[in-house]
Amino acid sequence: MQLHNTATGRKELFVPQDPQRITMYVCGPTVYSYAHIGNARPAVVFDVLARLLRRQYPRVDYARNITDIDDKINAAAARESVEIGVITSRYVAAYHEDLAALGVAPADFEPRVTEHIPQIIAMIERLIASGHAYAAENHVLFSVPSYPDYGQLSRRDPRELLAGARVEVAPYKKDPGDFVLWKPSPPELPGWDSPPSWGCGRGRPGWHIECSAMAEALLGDTIDIHGGGHDLIFPHHENERAQSTCAHGGAVFARYWLHNGFLTMDSEKMSKSIGNVLLVREILKVAPGEAVRLALLTGHYRQPLDWNDEAIADARRKLDRLYGALRDTADVAPATTFKAPQAFIAALEDDINTPAALAELFELARSLNKAETVEDKARLRAQLLDGGELLGLLQQDPAAWFSHSTAASSVSNDEIDTLVAQRAEAKKVRNFAEADRIRDALKAQGILIEDSAQGTRWRSTN
Ligand code: AMP
Ligand code: ZN
Known about the structure:
By secondary structure, this protein is an alpha/beta fold. It folds into three domains: 2-260, 3-Layer(aba) Sandwich (Rossmann fold); 265-400, Orthogonal Bundle (Isoleucyl-tRNA Synthetase, Domain 1); 405-460, no CATH class. Helix content is 45%, strand content 16%. The protein has 16 helices and 16 strands. It has helices at residues 37-56, 71-80, 84-101, 117-129, 158-162, 207-219, 233-247, 280-286, 289-297, 309-328, 342-349, 354-370, 374-391, 398-402, 413-428, 432-444; strands spanning 2-5, 10-13, 22-26, 60-64, 133-136, 139-142, 179-184, 192-193, 202-205, 223-229, 254-260, 263-265, 268-269, 305-307, 447-452, 455-460. The strands form five sheets. Strands 5-6-7-9-8 form a five-stranded antiparallel β-sheet. β12 (263-265) and β13 form a beta hairpin. The longest helix is centred in the N-terminal third of the chain and has 20 residues, at 37-56. The protein is elongated, with a radius of gyration of 26 Å. The model has no long low-confidence stretch (mean pLDDT 93).
């Protein structure tokens, strides 16, 4: 498998540290609001990578954290006059719901910052003891000049950083590039006591140290794959790398750094200030989760991906084609000894090339539509279903797919089936006017009837 490594700027052969246990850490959400469709992109992309790795290695330890302490969470809690736990548990639950609807399997570990404060404090202690961090005015700061490799991941010139162009200038920093590991918490905000030797009193961790400490606690000093959106390369991942490498006596922190490109809305950056943020749960009201997932996989993960109405409509049509091939051959049991073909696997192994892998699925569906023998159908069905599983697609009954968006339709599946049967009766007695009336009535509800060699079937266009 080849993966593009941000640290080297190249596609590299993936050679795990220990083939018996693959370790992967992906930065997860800060839970102060609902996930938008951009946030769903890394979740879906790294879910595909985890599925692929699980096929190839006996054990994959995949951690995706939850940041449950943060200024934005504090602000949301203050606005509603509730404890931060009320805010974080609400949005963790919503995040789980959204990801489940997109077919994202749970990660093996979902560490929360508030449950790892001792580990975070211990890591800061080690950084202070080794001269990589210092306490000043109730803060603990990482000393950037103490780590000469700083800037290598994001390929930034430390001098430029140190000039203070991109960093917050504060009087307690020895160097403008130094960043916060621990900061004070006023009595009304959540906080934890810090070791007396720091002289900092009650406080809370900075954002970057959380991931370093949780990755260490769950996955060890050196991890195979570290992922996230490309906005995290600097400063978040640069800082994680500095902390972990210095806390581990120079051991490599992450061997492969993977970053997904950004999702845009109608070619514009998705951002709260522009007001074009599209929540996953809003999209799920009008489109099936599986179509949303496929739409997210139509582009290569490193490229920007534009989100617009056509992207979802296109994904639905694609799933109609794939499920259509499965439905038309539903009488043939898949020959499960056949797995996804090599060309499909090769596409995924080529830096998770999901557009190429999807093209292989369409090729399989085309062949399945043309297949004449039961053997061919059984093999192609198995290959299509197995490839679908690796992408997290095609795992529902085709009938369920074609009846999907009933949420937006006012007729139930049973009512539709009854009307379809009545129409068949009407046709049998050559009452075509009645048959057409039923068809048009259903069409008005967004239900399309199609007569095929396999009989009459219907699908929702809602
Ligand atoms: P956040 O909650 O903002 O820290 O984001 C969680 C994850 O979503 C991070 O990996 C971000 O890089 C990623 N992310 C945020 N916005 C977008 C976007 N518009 N497109 C792709 N990924 C994004
Ligand atoms: Zn992180």
